[in-house]
UniProtKB/TrEMBL annotation:
<dbReference type="InterPro" id="IPR001867">
    <property type="entry name" value="OmpR/PhoB-type_DNA-bd"/>
</dbReference>
<dbReference type="InterPro" id="IPR039420">
    <property type="entry name" value="WalR-like"/>
</dbReference>
<feature type="DNA-binding region" description="OmpR/PhoB-type">
    <location>
        <begin position="124"/>
        <end position="218"/>
    </location>
</feature>
<dbReference type="InterPro" id="IPR001789">
    <property type="entry name" value="Sig_transdc_resp-reg_receiver"/>
</dbReference>
<dbReference type="Pfam" id="PF00486">
    <property type="entry name" value="Trans_reg_C"/>
</dbReference>
<feature type="modified residue" description="4-aspartylphosphate">
    <location>
        <position position="51"/>
    </location>
</feature>
<protein>
    <submittedName>
        <fullName>Two-component system OmpR family response regulator</fullName>
    </submittedName>
</protein>
<dbReference type="InterPro" id="IPR011006">
    <property type="entry name" value="CheY-like_superfamily"/>
</dbReference>
<dbReference type="Pfam" id="PF00072">
    <property type="entry name" value="Response_reg"/>
</dbReference>
<dbReference type="InterPro" id="IPR016032">
    <property type="entry name" value="Sig_transdc_resp-reg_C-effctor"/>
</dbReference>
<feature type="domain" description="OmpR/PhoB-type">
    <location>
        <begin position="124"/>
        <end position="218"/>
    </location>
</feature>
<keyword id="KW-0238">DNA-binding</keyword>
<keyword id="KW-0597">Phosphoprotein</keyword>
<feature type="domain" description="Response regulatory">
    <location>
        <begin position="2"/>
        <end position="116"/>
    </location>
</feature>
<dbReference type="InterPro" id="IPR036388">
    <property type="entry name" value="WH-like_DNA-bd_sf"/>
</dbReference>
Length: 223
């Protein structure tokens, strides 16, 4: 899952980037409102953590412009402004959640997991597809109750597919959502990760839709 972290306080941004990366997210950083506005308009993110007190363009204006442009990604406002009317203004501008500083990183991670789940139509933190289960809280994957060991990139690919079951996902989309912008991306590696996943989970669960991409489904035919 790919996140945009918009925070002008460099030390906090670096700390949060480290925490989010360790939690398995691909993280893009932005430190001012104009850059954040542009990134949110042209790139697809699974969620955005947005500070309000930004240089150049304040966070509420950025958020309003995203929503006016039809951008629907989940947005979590993260700010030192904790007055109730400011929270209302953030929610009315289109925010999906609000977390005031100071905060515990565990709460931030829990709120992000919930936002991403809900945006995909999932109420439970446990994602299932036939005998396959992925626990979004613990990061554990199992098949018929037996644990499956995955590399970080294998997990990211599988998690994205499990958040979008039954939908065709292209290699380009997977590449876009498992790597941050400054990462040396190669969509050909997606085939490698898919191949490895098929050796660790029931291969028929991941269907190759020729010329289009991959689809996760229960009992899809093997390629």
């Amino acid at each position: 899952m790919r996140l945009l972290l918009v925070e002008d306080e460099k030390a906090l941004a670096a700390r949060l980037e480290r925490v989010l990366t360790e939690a398995g997210y691909a993280v893009d950083l932005s430190h001012d409102g104009h850059d954040a506005l542009h990134r949110g308009e042209v790139d697809d993110f699974d969620a955005i953590v947005l500070d309000l007190g930004l240089p150049g363009l304040d966070g509420l204006t950025v958020l309003r412009r995203w929503r006016a442009a039809g951008r629907r990604m989940p947005v979590l406002i993260l700010t030192a402004r904790d007055q109730w009317h400011e929270k209302v203004a953030g929610i009315d501008a289109g925010a999906d959640d609000y977390l005031a500083k100071p905060f515990h990183v565990e709460e931030l991670l829990a709120r992000l997991r919930a936002l991403i789940r809900r945006s995909g139509g999932h109420a439970s933190p446990l994602l299932s597809c036939g005998p396959l289960q992925l626990d979004t809280v613990s990061g554990r994957v199992s098949v018929e109750g037996m644990p499956v060991t995955l590399t970080s990139h294998e997990f990211k690919v599988l998690a994205y597919l499990m958040h979008h079951p039954g939908r065709i996902v292209s290699r380009a989309e997977l590449t876009e959502h498992i790597y941050a912008q400054d990462f040396d991306r190669d969509s050909n590696t997606i085939e490698v990760f898919i191949g490895r996943l098929r050796r660790k989970i029931p291969a028929a669960l991941i269907e190759t839709v020729r010329g289009l991409g991959y689809r996760l489904g229960e009992g899809a035919p093997a390629p």
